[in-house]
Amino acid sequence: EDQVTQSPEALRLQEGESSSLNCSYTVSGLRGLFWYRQDPGKGPEFLFTLYSAGEEKEKERLKATLTKKESFLHITAPKPEDSATYLCAVRDPGGGNKLTFGTGTQLKVEL
Amino acid sequence: EAQVTQNPRYLITVTGKKLTVTCSQNMNHEYMSWYRQDPGLGLRQIYYSMNVEVTDKGDVPEGYKVSRKEKRNFPLILESPSPNQTSLYFCASSLSTRIIAGELFFGEGSRLTVL
Q: Is the pLDDT of residue A95 over 90?
């Protein structure tokens, strides 16, 4: 069964303190890895799609990278408004349209 | 404004009392799906639909029913709710050409408590 594991479960940063979130997966034949942001009391919001090892995507202070075994979400000089839970998901390798989500990393950025 | 709308947002009910959580999207999306989110378990798919009259089971379909009679609506039906269905429920939608890119639009969630 597909496994998506995110670490750490929670992360507290000072404003401006860069760090990385990890998403490791055991899917064979990856058909896409996706990052979402979820604010408290809200539904997840799509951020990035990565398909192949070496691929990178950027959006403001966020950069997502992908290797053959894991993905990283790098947060550069974070601000308090970056505080959220970040979820990663992988697509069913059988070609279906099911996404398997990790349990997320809860990020808090303090002044 | 493009959105996925769920109702009710909050509901407390009792075991066995049938309920329906509605989901409607205004983006003309073919694909719609229901997820439940539980602490420590993450988001798990209940049912999904690729288009009108086409539905399929996700990972945790037991105790739930869905229907897709119109493109914009995808209601989730709990025929006889039980306490283990207490959860936060999300409806999501996507274009069929974008679901392969994992690009889902989520509603704001419906928090259900079954006593």
A: no
